[in-house]
Amino acid sequence: MTVPRSLSYAEARERVLGAVRPGPIERVSLAAARGRALRGTLTAPHPLPPFDNASMDGWAARSADLAGATAAAPVTLAVVEVLSAGHVPSRPLGAGEAMRIMTGAMLPQGADAVIPFEDAEGLEAPARVRIGAPVVRGDCVRPAGADLAAGAPVLAVGHELSPHDLALLAALGFAEIPVGARPSVALLSTGDELLEPHEALRPGAIRESNTTQLAALLEECGCAVALRRRLPDDVAAVTAAIRDALALADVVITTGGVSAGDHDPVKLSLDAIGDVELWRVAMRPGKPQAFGTPGGRLFFGLPGNPGSVACVFETLVRPALRRLQGFTVLERPWLDVRAAVPFGSLAGRRDFLRATLSRRDGEWWAAPAGPQVSGYLTPQSRAHALLVVPEEAASLEPGDAARALLLRWPEGTPG
Ligand code: AMP
Ligand code: MG
Question: Whole-prediction pTM value?
Fold first, then answer.
C-alpha cells in the first residue's frame, strides 16, 4: 500500500507549483473579464483622451488674450460658437474670441484654456464674455494622451482585471480580452457519514459542507465546478469516480479519506489511479494530503475536516489554480500583524491559525477566531485571516510580529 511521504510546507508548495504551467488562453467580452488573468500584451491603440477637451463647463479661450485681465480692467471676448460634447468645432479660435464649451467637448484649435462659467460673466446681444483675471495655459483642459499615451503598455500580463481596469479597456476599444481559460474542477466528497445540506440528520451522520465551501472558493478564484459528487467510503466506488472525474475535468479535488483511518478510500485508491503521492505535510491544519498529476490533470486529495480544507485550499490549491490561469499574484494578500495573545504551535511545523483581526495603535492585532480544531466550522466562519506560526517558532507571544493571510477585512473596519 502507498506509504505517505513526509515533507515540509515549502516542499509541498514547490512540488505543487512546479507541476503547474499557465493553461489555455481564451478571448472573452469585457462583461466576462472581471477577475480574470490578462494573458496578452495590450498597448494603447490611440491616446487617452483621444483629443484635447474641456474638463469643466465654461469658455474656451486663448491664455495670451487674458494675460492682462484684472477685476478692475476685465477683458471682453466675442463668443463665436457653442461647443457640446461629441461635436467638432467648425473653425479655429481667433484672437479676441471665446467659445462656450461643455465638459468633454473638443477644444477648438488655438484655444489653450477653459474658464469655468462661475469665473466669468456672460453678456448677451452680441454674445460676449467678460473675464476679470488671467488664466494659466492648460487650465481646465484635459490634453490628448495625458491619461495614457498612444502605444503605451496598458496593463501587465498576469494582472487580475478589476472593474476599473475594464473601464480603461472599454475606453481604449478592447471589446474582447485575452484571459486565462477557466479551469474546470470536479469535487468529490467521501464519507459514509455525509448527508446533503437539505437532508435531515440521523444518528452518526453529519451534513456535507466541504463541497459547498470549495465550490464557492473555486468560483471566487475563476474556476468552473464541472462536477460535484458525494461518495461512500468504498474504494471501488471512489476509484471509479476519480477516474471519471479525471476524464472530465482539468482539476480533481477530493475531500476526506486520505489519512490513517482503516477505510480511507482515497488513500486506498491511489495505487489504482497512479501518479498521485500520499503526503504528510508538516503543517496544521491539513497534514494528510494527496497530490499528483495523473494523465496531466491536477489532483488534490484534501483532508476531510472543513478547517483543513480551507487551509489547504488557501495555501496550496488556490496558488496552483491561479498559476494555471496565468495570474502573477497567486495568493490572497498578506498582512503584517502582531499576536494579541499567546498562540501555541510546534517547532518544525507551520501552523495556519484561524484568527480575527482588530486595529489598535496603528497596527493589526490577531486573536484566535475560536478553538483551533480543524473539525469545527464556526472559527473558520469568524476568521479574518490565517495567522502563520512558522517552523522555527514553537509559539507566538503577545506582541510578537507575524504574518497573516487575509481572508476578508473585519466588518466595520474604518476606512
Ligand atoms: P476523514 O479524513 O475522511 O477521516 O474525515 C475527517 C473528518 O472530516 C471526519 O470527522 C469527517 O466526518 C469530516 N468530513 C469529511 N468529509 C467531510 C465533508 N465533505 N463535509 C464535512 N465534514 C467532512
Ligand atoms: Mg472519511
Answer: 0.94
